[in-house]
Design a protein that fits this description.
Helix content: 10-25%
Shape: globular
Radius of gyration: 23 Å
CATH topology of one domain: Protein Transport Mog1p, Chain A
Number of strands: 11
Structural class: alpha+beta
Strand content: 25-35%
Largest sheet: 7 strands, antiparallel
Length: 246
């Protein structure tokens, strides 16, 4: 549901607008080259404007994700590429999947992405409507989902999006928070307090921002690998024992 545009339609974010005539004055050139950052009066935040709010956030590299009390944070890994592709917050029977992408300097992409998602849902047997939500226009949808008995049912979902300076953040709410917005308020608050770390590298619009496992998970994996290697090097180390009772 997030198709890439054709290569010849893409605008790399480090390109300079060369459509100005030779007679343009310096102020016109400066205005044309100045990035336009869509308004985000209360988050999500860019790494350059995050408030000093004292919130603890999970460091995933391109995303700093707050985890509120009682919430569970998961990372979604592409097994083939062994890369983190998104994060998911779970709050009771509601879940919020989070993805971050590069965007052009001069314009947001949520409007065109929104249209593509709506079209894709309708073509695949679902339904979708654009309504005003806490972050601006969002999609309230019924998404086709295959059940274990191979029957296809429609599941409620909400697609929310925010354009930032050179990035786009998308959230997919499912479960109770999609069926009733009142159940998704805590996840909305977490989404509002995400920090996007875009970095200075040139990226094509719609390329996913690079993510990584949180430091705690990496340290735990390294410790586990070291312990396993130690056991392999010490064949005389006592392993699990079985006591037989007669």
């Amino acid at each position: 549901m997030f198709r890439r545009r054709r290569r010849d339609d893409e605008e790399f974010d480090d390109e300079v607008d060369e459509t100005l005539g030779e007679g343009a004055d310096e102020r016109g050139v400066a205005a044309a080259r100045e990035p336009v950052a869509p308004g985000r009066p209360a988050g999500p935040w860019d790494s350059d404007d995050v408030p000093d709010d004292g919130l603890a956030r999970l460091d995933l590299g391109g995303l700093l994700v707050p985890v509120m009390p009682g919430m569970e944070a998961r990372v979604d890994v592409d097994q083939e590429q062994q890369a983190v592709v998104s994060a998911t917050l779970v709050d009771g029977t509601s879940a919020l999947q989070i993805n971050a992408f590069a965007a052009p300097k001069k314009a947001g992409i949520w409007g065109e992405v929104r249209d593509e998602i709506v079209e894709s849902l309708r073509q695949n047997g679902g339904s979708a409507e654009v309504v005003e939500g806490p972050f601006g226009p969002e999609i309230r949808a019924q998404v086709p989902s295959a059940m274990p008995d191979q029957a296809v049912t429609l599941q409620p979902a909400r697609f929310i999006g925010v354009d930032g300076p050179r990035w786009f953040l998308r959230g997919l709410l499912s479960g109770a928070g999609a069926a009733d917005p009142a159940h998704g308020e805590r996840l909305e608050e977490a989404f509002r307090n995400i920090v996007v770390v875009r970095g200075g590298d040139a990226m094509a619009p719609r390329d996913a921002l690079p993510l990584r496992l949180p430091r705690e998970a990496m340290e735990a994996a390294q410790q586990q690998a070291e312990e396993q290697q130690k056991r392999q090097l010490d064949p005389f180390e006592r392993g699990p024992e079985i006591t037989e009772v007669r």
